[in-house]
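Work package 3, deliverable 3.1, input record:
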Amino acid sequence: MGSNVSITTTEGGVTAPQGFRSSALHAGIKTKTGALDLAIIAADGPASAAALFTTNLAQAAPVLTSREHLERSGGIARAIVVNSGCANACTGDQGMADAAQMAAEVGSALGCRPEHVLVASTGVIGVNLKMGALVPGIRQAAQSLARGRGGDAARAIMTTDPFPKECAVTVRTPAGWFIVGGIAKGSGMIEPMMATMLGFLTTDAAVPPDLLAVALREAAADTFNAITVDGECSTNDSLFALASGASGVAIDGESYSALLQGLLAVSRELALAIVRGGEGATKLIAVNVHDARTREEARQVARTIANSPLVKTAVHGADPNWGRIVAAAGRSGINFDLRKATVHVGGVLLFEHGLPHDDAAPQAAEHLKGSEVSIDVRLGTGGGQAATIWTCDLTAEYIRINGEYRT
Amino acid sequence: MGSNVSITTTEGGVTAPQGFRSSALHAGIKTKTGALDLAIIAADGPASAAALFTTNLAQAAPVLTSREHLERSGGIARAIVVNSGCANACTGDQGMADAAQMAAEVGSALGCRPEHVLVASTGVIGVNLKMGALVPGIRQAAQSLARGRGGDAARAIMTTDPFPKECAVTVRTPAGWFIVGGIAKGSGMIEPMMATMLGFLTTDAAVPPDLLAVALREAAADTFNAITVDGECSTNDSLFALASGASGVAIDGESYSALLQGLLAVSRELALAIVRGGEGATKLIAVNVHDARTREEARQVARTIANSPLVKTAVHGADPNWGRIVAAAGRSGINFDLRKATVHVGGVLLFEHGLPHDDAAPQAAEHLKGSEVSIDVRLGTGGGQAATIWTCDLTAEYIRINGEYRT
């Protein structure tokens, strides 16, 4: 079926698929006047819903609430409500009550059960939501849902991300076409105590909840779960998917790959935008590991290289420092024979048979001066498995952003 | 026995124990005229020997050579030869031949078998040793071994460490007294492609090789293996111990703890000096994790916090950012109940019952302005196990040091 599917970029984001409306406004959580800090993404009727949440033990109230709502609803949701400016994390019982009230207010306005509303928050940790401002905001936002306003939602979920992130694709299949859209915010922890990756995907394909959950997990593995800015994982990280069915194209086992391709295309673009907008980042780095025994081993080697501060600073300095790449791979915990491994930077061979090719260093240094960098490590195990992790360079700006005193 | 043992600091370093001599000179590996780059530490006769080496898959030729010599000799050594300025790592068959020749030259000069000589190197990776300069240097150094010159050896193993590291202690036991001394160099990877932690411990206690190996491993677990500057692990990391027996104090099962206390005292001081001299470091941070189920779990939580760039930048900025500490503990992979956990910074309670104590933040911020910082996380598992990891803050200077182009 794969060859009969075509994917093309289309206008918009989370409301590009049929059957979705959104609204965004300034409720007053952010102190800056007029700054959008509240968004609702609503389906016209009950939609299939799936989500992935942070694996951190410290899970924010909205994460716990959304997880519980998805369990109780059996994977059906009508809307997602999200605020920025306050993460509602480490806020105890009051935080749980506030997250529940956010869902209840949306349910009341849209005429659906509270457990059909999912909740997300991003912003400062350890501070309670200003419910006196948020509740009137939610009521007003629920009255002004519209199509074509996904861009405002993309802005309303930003904390200190340098730019909004939205995209959509049209997926054409023999059985008809459907759209996948999405918005995301990155780990722009520019204000200390802020931290969160949030992603919201929508599609007008008709997908049973179980299949949507499988597709979301598979798409995230090579996109949202294949990026790293600093190896940190927040209390609020969440990725949601809603499927309205409004296109009339039904997804089953046979057409599953078309849905997956659509989710992958949108997720990949949003995930790479998060890395490009990483704190202090000036370069997008693709770390590709080839010829591992398993994909998981390839991922672990790639992740160790991608999180190595020595590799990230070397890339920042346009230094083709293969020694740091070899040393990071060597401490990844994955077994391989260094004498069979090779390292390329920008396609230039720098290390082979256990020995450097330092004559090629100037050519690799030229590649590193660009804004998109590739590092390729071939482990030579004969297993043939590969994986990619995307990251950014580590700069003095990252230190400045994260080292300033909070109060 | 512990209560009958007293430990007092004494003068000197690696030649403070009886039965050891050292020499150091400029052989010509470092380009700077007169910079010490070669040292020999020699016992007056066959000594018990033990060592710990990097767990990195990419192991330098001197590591492979020393490991093999220790196996062949059954834990007996007469001398250690070490050069700085060139790591002899990723140097293939030529590198192995060069390391073997270093040992052979010392053996020839001292009249012992080559496998009774251990080898260490630190400096640039991927470059062959200048044997034309090193071999005459080794011959000359072997002729000028003396007591009381351990300070020169401490300087000769530096690459771009900000200061030399040596210390010694006298251990008094009911059966007599002995001395433990040592020198070390840190992970001052100030010149790109440089990387290595090296430690050399000596004692004049009489210790069988097997017991020395056990004591070295146990002492390192809470000292050299409990520090981290940036989570990187090099190709050359090595820690050696030699025991001459010249004090006449024999170590057996009963007096083992006296030896361990001596090794711990010296190892701890050297290890903390490495962190203080970490790249760009301005603060020494002790991350103490309490009440874990096992020591290994306590270590894993402490290590995750100690390697968190967000925690390290917050400490640099004197920001008592308990949220980053909680988030790092939460993603460590160790299971615990956040509501039973507490976080103290400088002894000030900042997080308890899942909620912040932000009123105490200014007091904690004052503590963070000092040069020695403590972070205490109590997991509340009821297991009662604890561990400490030492690290340093992450500064813009680290980025500058590691981000400059190598050529």
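The longest strand of chain B covers residues 38-53.
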